[in-house]
């Protein structure tokens, strides 16, 4: 039995428009929009009417970079697909794209099937997968073609983490050449991991073991150098490139220079780089371990360049790189050796609210908020217009957002399965009130009404920004 839902009286905001409109939902999809108060809108009937007067009606967020249940550094990310997607819903995100991992010496298929099995029947919102390539060889290159046909159309490579995920320049070039022919998009963790490992070893030998040294050894110049190198390899291969979690002004400059040449080079940043800094990494009593992630947090002065990049479209997407590890028992593995602190921060629940705070603060417009958090990630990864917008035919992934309510972010009240908040005590203006996923109410006026298994796997087409 399909339920017709009518959302009345809100300000509908998409990447392109703002309009006071009523939204009719039928059979899990957006059926129609009509200006509020018009005869067309007044004639609609529905089983459920949601009053959105004084609220925003926005597309559900698309978080294109999450790591649920990721094994890392001898432990695993603390959010399961169940807890992580429930927290996503609480934060107004209705689609995640997570990373399946190829194990060295094993096939892509085996890695992808393992992630299908983790997520199947457990997700509260819809999900898709990227594929991490840990082992670039003839068989994995051939498998890339098959995965693209199956709707896994993006592949992540690492210039960091030698001995774990690292690929050398030759492997990266081969994967890029393959993606140039099969339509896939290469996502790059751009840090010079070989050089960083030397600096880590030297720092530890000097007795520099505290969390703040994690940021000091992973130098800005080694992010910029790797970003530059990735761009040149992509040019040689004739392939598009998406650089993940860009954190520093110098790396943004490399992306901007490439884009000024008309190259298909794209960049993502994350809320932690926009709102946190090395001040957090330097917090005493090992508290800085909570903020260890890679690329690392940077000195505050880099934030202005990231915001500017978002305004000028040299950075196109804000994702979370949500990869939570509890302080107790997980982050603590690195007491006495910062290189053993699991890398990652929680954030899937906070992204939409933090970016709305940027709207309140005048850093970005409302439409740009929706563009960087919903529409562009959906287009970048082949989910648009099914996801990322409010338009007839789109999935009814809709958030009723109260732009006036103040809330204080805290581990006491968040729904992520982690024992701290990276934004503890920060007050923001704006809060998710009601969330629909494919027409089903999963958050009803700040009450979770969803369920594990509602979320479905969503195959993707190729990047929609390429000719």
How would the blueprint of this fold be written?
Layout: E1 5-13, E2 18-26, E3 29-35, H1 39-43, E4 48-51, E5 56-59, E6 61-66, E7 71-72, E8 75-76, H2 81-90, E9 93-101, H3 108-119, E10 126-132, H4 138-150, E11 154-158, H5 169-182, E12 185-189, H6 193-205, H7 212-217, H8 220-237, E13 241-243, H9 249-260, E14 265-269, H10 271-275, H11 278-281, H12 302-312, E15 317-318, H13 351-360, H14 366-380, E16 398-408, E17 427-437, E18 440-443
Helix pairs in contact: 4-5, 5-8, 8-9
Structural notes for this entry:
- There is one protein chain.
- This protein is an alpha/beta fold and 467 residues long.
- It has 14 helices and 18 strands.
- The longest helix has 18 residues.
- It is globular and about 70 Å long.
- The relative contact order is 0.18.
Based on the model shown, name its key terms.
about 475 residues; alpha/beta; 8-stranded mixed beta sheet; 8-stranded parallel beta sheet; 14 helices; 18 strands; globular
Q: What is the terminal-to-terminal distance?
A: 41 Å
What's the oligomerization state? single chain
Task: Please tell me the overall pLDDT.
Answer: 97
Radius of gyration: 21 Å
Question: Quick summary of this structure?
Answer:
This protein is α/β, with parallel strands linked by helices.
